[in-house]
Design brief:
Distance between the termini: 26 Å
Structural class: mainly alpha
Shape: elongated
Number of helices: 15
Number of domains: 2
Number of strands: 0
Length: 308
Amino acid sequence: MINRILIRIKVLQIVYAYYQKDSNDLKVAENELLLSLRRSYDLYHYFLLLIVDITHLYERITEAKRNKYRPTDEELNPDIRLLNNRLSKQIAGNEDLLKYVKEHGISWADDPDFVKKALEMIISSEVYAEYLKNEEDSYEVDKEFWRLVFKRIISNNEYIEEYLEEKSIYWNEDVDIIESFVIKTIKRFEENTGSKQELMPMFNSDDDYDYVIKLFRQTLLNGDKYRERISKHMKNWESERVANMDLVIMQVALAEILNFPTIPVSVSLNEYIDAAKYYSTPKSGTFINGVLDSIVEELKAEKLLMKN
């Protein structure tokens, strides 16, 4: 589930923090990196659990209205399509989710206002109105409803993003990416798998885990060597005026370019130049592109750049 894009972001963040703290404890920093990735995986499960909690809240609200002293006809006969949503029920009984929730203490119990706000946004949406109007009553319709909820209501929602970023410092850059994984997961659900539907693993393969550790360690263990090479190519730039994040981005980029033969140079360059646009200054992308291009040419001339 945790892809290379998210891994690069996390490595950049932890390496930057490592230098800001002026720390030399590589193991502590590595543990922080792995914890940060684990928290991203937590968020994936939080989102799936949100479907269950929203449904349960709607059920409680509906029952409370029915039991009022003088309920209206509408309150006595509410639309229960959301309550009977097949995907929500399937997720509520999903064995992988229940196991993770139990092992890692995942819960929305301390966030009732957030769950309520999310429910209100859904109930007032066109997605919900179209769901109620749909004459077809099937598993696929129920699944499509929740896919659209995440795509049109939850994804890129400013309130939700701000709330989650305040809830965990590890989720500052994760929300958009994890939302996309949840949408993919919903699309993969099948009715006949029941409670045994597999969720996405934390890493797609052992290669991704090895990539995390190797990229991080090589970045720091060879940090002085990489920075010395970077300094040589910062023509017309005073090193003290270069943003610290720019140096970190180039350092991590060099670690990837030099230590992962199967990753094309163009892929590495594009990924880290894109990262610079988001995490550093407006001019950083152009600057980093120029410096890294120059370094790559030098590495080729020195026959140090070995790619499969």
